[in-house]
Amino acid sequence: MLAWTLLLAACTTWAEPPAPPPDPPPAPAPPPAVVRALPEADGWTALEEGLDLGVFTAPVASTHGDSRITVLRADPERFEPVLLMASAEAERGEAATKRTARAWAERYGLVAAINTSMFRDDHRSATHYLAGPLDPRVEGSPTHVNQGDDASGNTMLVFDPVDPSRDPPLKIVDRKCGQSFAEAHARYRARVQSIRMVSCHGGSVWAQQPKQWSHAVVGVDKAGRLLFIHARSPWSTHDFIDLLLGLPIDLAQLQYAEGGPEASLWVDAGGREVELFGSYETGFNENDDNRRAWPLPNVLGLRPVPGSEPR
Length: 311
Fold this sequence. Notes:
Elements: H1 2-11, E1 43-48, E2 51-57, E3 68-74, E4 79-85, H2 86-91, H3 101-108, E5 112-115, E6 130-133, E7 143-147, E8 155-161, E9 170-174, H4 181-187, E10 188-194, E11 213-221, E12 226-235, H5 237-246, E13 251-259, E14 264-269, E15 272-277, E16 298-304
Antiparallel strand pairs: 1-2, 2-3, 3-12, 4-16, 5-14, 5-16, 6-7, 6-10, 8-9, 8-10, 11-12, 11-13, 14-15
């Protein structure tokens, strides 16, 4: 009987089935889609740490377009301005050419680009003084002067200090406020002279006029952050300054960059790409029909400060 029981147990014993294979690891999440548009709502949108995009609908409507003003705000401790000039490329022996703000940014790895200032009929020389490193990608690059001193521009955006322990990363020097251009030349490697827009006391200095155009302007806020400002919708420059002074951007100083179809701003940061360009200009292009960015000989760009990490 015992033998039969053992034989029966042996015949009815089954091996444990093999364990099922482990689940495959989850597929990596696809990168977020790039947003190729401005935020729909007014206000600030954080792109990266130290870089914010503001969109504001003006309280006074323009004669054309959506009456929106775009402001890119950069903390100079995390994003540094860089000056790019076709004339510097020519001096380096490279193929120098005008490019759109986007093309300049893509060529030099920038997160943003805007007009430096107006330029002359040779389509290379700035209207006012313009100088900076011959090759901003190279530490200690010698100075390249695109255009010598001009008596008519009363402000100068300066950056890339010779001694960062002594001077801030950037500022706008205003000689109508008793500040010295000669001192700025000695203390900063990059200098962009242009037309003054805001007084020493924070008011507009631009006389009213019937002409109006799209705008690209460059400013500094009360915390020392750099502002790239663009509006496709046209206003007189007098009215545009008043609008900017009324926005929640803590504007301290401001200088003119460009107007009309050539006024440009490119942003590529934080999963958002924005390409803005002007259209309307009294006496030249009196419509809102421009649908392409115009090429520029000089741009002011932004790139991450070496060692800074995106959010």
